Amino acid sequence: MSDSHSLDGPDGHTHIHDHSHDHGHEEHTHPPSDLELRVKTLESLLVEKGLVDPSAMDAIIETYEHKVGPRNGAKVVAKAWLEPEFRDWLLRDASAAVASLGFEGRQGEHLKVVENTQTTHNLVVCTLCSCYPWTVLGLPPSWYKSAPYRARAVSEPRAVMAEFGTQLAEGVVINVWDSTAELRYLVLPQRPEGTQGWSATQLEKLVTRNAMIGVELAAPAEGSPL
Amino acid sequence: MIGAHDLGGAQGFGAVAATKDEALFHSAWERRAFALTLATGMLGQWNIDESRHARENQPPQRYLDNSYYETWLVALQKLLLQKGLLSTAELAALPLVESLAVALENIPSSEPRHEQPKALTPEQALAALRRGGPTELASQQTPLFEVGAKVRVQPMTQAGHTRAPRYVHGALGVVQSYNGVHVYPDANAHKSSTSAAHGEPLYTVAFPRAALFQQENSAGQVMVDLWEPYLCDA
């Protein structure tokens, strides 16, 4: 489970942090926090007024907890590694290429794919809020929305990547994409060496969420269960 | 506005808490606050730029101290009040949360509506997610700048919503691509419910990182999506 304490800065101060960290298991909080009570009452009020249908809320949650997530993006990446024509289409018109796999909708209306090469690496951030390509990656992780990442991805991308354990070779150019408009960016990582002849299903397992944001590289072949 | 949300290049926040996988929501209320925001957003009473501005336009110390979904909750309540879907009295009757109180002070409320919009069914909500909200407009407008053109970002100190991050204000860049005419957030966040969406040409502009920041002595660019009114010839 996630450690919300880890969102705190090393100086012990808490920034854009998670107030739920006092509670161990989220569904069994005793007593309920002020925020829980407030949200519950607000929901009841809006339901009573006919403005929201709780089952529609459940359907929205179900979509992002179980249906839309980074496995969508991994399928896109694996297909691009295997099919040069699909890769070209993806780089030319990502929205259409990705929609051909059935991934479309909210926060993926205007998609762009940026490709990593031997000489250029790409990293995605939203310094102003939390813009993220939902259709291919689902909802963003906490660190992507946190002040340290939003502040530093543009100014010191190498240092940020090092905090994810990623070391790029010297001389590799890092381009950072700040999602300030409604364009949403997905990184096409480099295909790991030693994966010749691998199937799409095998390749997808190497494509992590973090590699598609650009803070990591795709997982190496040797670590993968075949 | 240059608010606390405008974080690019800010210092003192410490290291990124890198995680590979984690729960999407850290408590039950976050899950419901997320879904409430999306479900009420689908009523069509406000647009994404009004919603962003409602989140960002908080006292800076409050914005930084809020958790992510607290800020969503602040914005949701502001918008419900501003659009007349909830009254000040109804909001005041909710259980008090100190962290939300300041942000919800002095919000202009509207007359309560006689005709309320109607909740979407689960099917309608899922269809709305699939449809999304494209922002590119069909337009005959000719972009002023060509790909490769040198541009300078205007100084931008006006109040109101903008998507030009402060770290590029006044900076020199090169148009890397042209992305068509898109809804202009600076106007859209403050438009009346009856006026049509205003569009402006949208560019991706490349800035050499070394010219913006001195932290790392490495080659590379920062690419920022900027609308034409943010830019001038360089």
What does this structure look like?
The complex is a heterodimer of chains A (226) and B (234). Chain A is α/β, with parallel strands linked by helices and 226 residues long. Chain A has 2 domains: 35-67, no CATH class; 69-223, Nitrile Hydratase, Chain A (Alpha-Beta Complex), CATH 3.90.330. Chain A contains 11 helices and 4 strands; from the N terminus they run H-H-H-H-H-E-E-H-H-H-H-E-E-H-H. Chain A has helices at residues 34-48, 54-67, 70-82, 84-92, 94-99, 134-137, 142-145, 147-152, 157-163, 200-204, 209-213, and strands spanning 110-115, 120-125, 173-178, 183-188. In chain A, strands 1-4 form a two-stranded parallel ribbon. In chain A, strands 2-3 form a two-stranded parallel ribbon. In chain A, helix 3 crosses helix 4. The longest helix of chain A is centred in the first third of the chain and has 15 residues, at 34-48. With 234 residues, chain B is an alpha+beta fold. Chain B has 2 domains: 28-131, Cyclin A, domain 1 (Orthogonal Bundle), CATH 1.10.472; 150-233, SH3 type barrels (Roll). Chain B contains 9 helices and 5 strands; from the N terminus they run H-H-H-H-H-H-H-E-E-H-E-H-E-E. Chain B has helices at residues 28-41, 48-56, 60-65, 68-82, 88-92, 98-101, 122-131, 185-188, 209-212; strands at 150-153, 172-183, 199-208, 221-227, 231-233. In chain B, helix 1 (28-41) runs parallel beside helix 4 (68-82). Chain B is globular, with a radius of gyration of 20 Å. The mean pLDDT of chain B is 93. The interface between A and B is large, with 103 and 105 residues.
